[in-house]
Amino acid sequence: xxxxxxxxxxxxxxxxxxxxxxxxxxxxxxxxxxxxxxxxxxxxxxxxxxxxxxxxxxxxxxxxxxxxxxxxxxxxxxxxxxxxxxxxxxxxxxxxxxxxxxxxxxxxxxxxxxxxx
Length: 117
What we know:
Blueprint: E1 4-7, E2 10-13, E3 18-24, E4 33-39, E5 46-51, E6 57-59, E7 67-72, E8 77-82, E9 91-98, E10 104-107, E11 111-116
Parallel strand pairs: 2-11
Antiparallel strand pairs: 1-3, 3-8, 4-5, 4-9, 5-6, 7-8, 9-10, 9-11
């Protein structure tokens, strides 16, 4: 079992920045792939960025060049630095973990990000 707790959401003006953090429980964190997802009202949940256990990173096209995902295995954390935020980035952001060979089975409770125009 892995428990994930996100923090760092809030209200920001367009063009501003926020940094999301996710702390994971358990000793197996370094072997897990980690991802950040988001879900806006009336829309499906979508992948924002992911980082593998070996540090391989993938970004969705809509955040390339603006968001940065990173992990710190010593602290069991994964972060998402979000710059140049736009109103369309408004959503609940979720941290998720996947064990080797599995899908994203573990999810945090989500943190709200609201970007005003």
